[in-house]
TrEMBL record:
Keywords: Iron. InterPro entries: Fe-transptr_FeoA-like (IPR007167), FeoA_core_dom (IPR038157), Transcriptional_repressor_C (IPR008988). GO terms for molecular function: transition metal ion binding. The keyword Isomerase does not apply. It comes from Aphanothece hegewaldii CCALA 016. It comes from the Bacteria. The keyword Transit peptide does not apply. This is Ferrous iron transport protein A. Residues 6-79 form the Ferrous iron transporter FeoA-like domain.
Length: 81
């Protein structure tokens, strides 16, 4: 399994990734992300880039999760192929 560190906004729709942590600059969003099920080690599929209010939608364990821009910026991810 190869992993490539990247930003969530640079991943292609349909790509699979893994959450590796959180950006310290956006630490206020950590609790919100964990409450949404986005903890380190969780795998996800990027479903779509949506409207400006909720720019990204992920599928995590069969659930669709919409993320705001600050939440997206707070996530540190790796693309998994």
């Amino acid at each position: 399994m190869n992993t490539i560190k990247t930003y969530l906004t640079e991943m292609a729709i349909g790509a699979t990734g893994c959450i590796v942590g959180y950006d310290r600059a956006y630490s206020g969003y950590t609790g919100k992300l964990i409450a949404k099920g986005l903890a380190p080690g969780i795998r996800f599929i990027l479903i779509r880039h949506a409207c400006s209010e909720f720019p990204l939608q992920l599928e995590v364990e069969g659930n669709l999760i919409s993320l705001s821009k600050p939440e997206v910026d707070a996530l540190c991810v790796e693309e998994v192929d």
